[in-house]
Amino acid sequence: MNPIFADLPTTVFEVMSRLAREHDAVNLGQGFPDDPGPADVRAKAAASVVEGWNQYPPMMGIPELRLAVAAHHRRFYGLDIDAEHEVMVTSGATEALAGAIFSLITPGDEVVLFEPLYDAYLPLVRRAGGVPRLVTLKPPHWRFSESDLSAAFSAKTKVVLINDPLNPAASIWPIEDLDMLARFVEKSGAVVIQDAVWEHVIFDGRAFTPLITRPGMRERVVHIGSAGKIFSLTGWKVGLVTAAPALMRVLAKAHQFLTFTTPPNLQAAVAYGLAKEDRYFTTMRSDFAKARDYFANGLRQMGFDPLPCHATYFVNVDLAAIGINETDRAFAERLVSVGGVATIPVSAFYDTQAVTTVVRFCFAKKQSTLDAALERLDAFLKHHRR
Description:
CATH class of the largest domain: Alpha Beta
Domain Aminotransferase class I/classII large: 24-377
Cofactor: pyridoxal 5'-phosphate
Pfam families: Aminotran_1_2
Organism: Candidatus Raskinella chloraquaticus
CATH superfamily of the largest domain: Type I PLP-dependent aspartate aminotransferase-like (Major domain)
CATH topology of the largest domain: Aspartate Aminotransferase, domain 2
Helix content: 40-55%
Protein name: Aminotransferase
Number of strands: 12
Radius of gyration: 21 Å
Number of helices: 15
């Protein structure tokens, strides 16, 4: 068996989900809402199964969805996208990431990544023969410096893989950081894979700027979005890929031999959803922001000082800041088994041991779920402090 996968330990996400089931815990670990998603989008998918085409759709995606993605980028980012040559639909963003990594990396190429990072990145890069070069980001601001980039980039840099907005940090990189990164990318001749699945889950009137819109980046960025995150339908696994034609020709070949295509009824529903009026997007963000504020205020009442949260479904807390002398993983395992609340230790998102005292909570839940979690967490902390 391939040791890259055979030797991987059981992920902490799987461990925490199993413990949550065993202890009947409130699960604020895995990042999914407990809302079923927009009824009209789901109804469109259902109608498309009954009334629509259920055989192989076009490999690159149904025309309606590819046109909808191009219109989306024009509407939100001012990008002029050619739907026929620059848009592809995949079976989830992770498939898009895998295809991009496999098609852009050859053995020995160096890949610049930023930790904390999505757990699929490193196994996929290593399976492709890439050599990871990590830039370590730390709370509370999760930003990088020019010296960080100078240490990571080299003559062998082939690909840069970024997640912005950033999970689990719940941060959005400012324009000046993007432009600094763009200068290094342009100088190195690298290609950027941008995991932008959280592009619409942003709060407080903040704007997300895709790297593909910055000077010199239009031909160098593979932009990957997720219908599952845009519409809170994480089980649908519909990825939305945008890239210049020269890149897309290669990305498409990898996609052809991974999943080839994606269920046509889901594609039709996503095309419908992307055309929804602005009120859908603003209401979705407002609702998540209210849940964030409600949960964060509950944490503050217990003595926590939640880290800033500008995007994603997640709020982080630093255990050391309130005097809990315990690693994040040990705390998380004790909290789920004794306190009945599942969370995720942020150290799981690092290849190094740079951050070991921060835990991540998913607030994308109904108020009753958050209330149950806060009540249990409060009781757990009071017992811990005795």
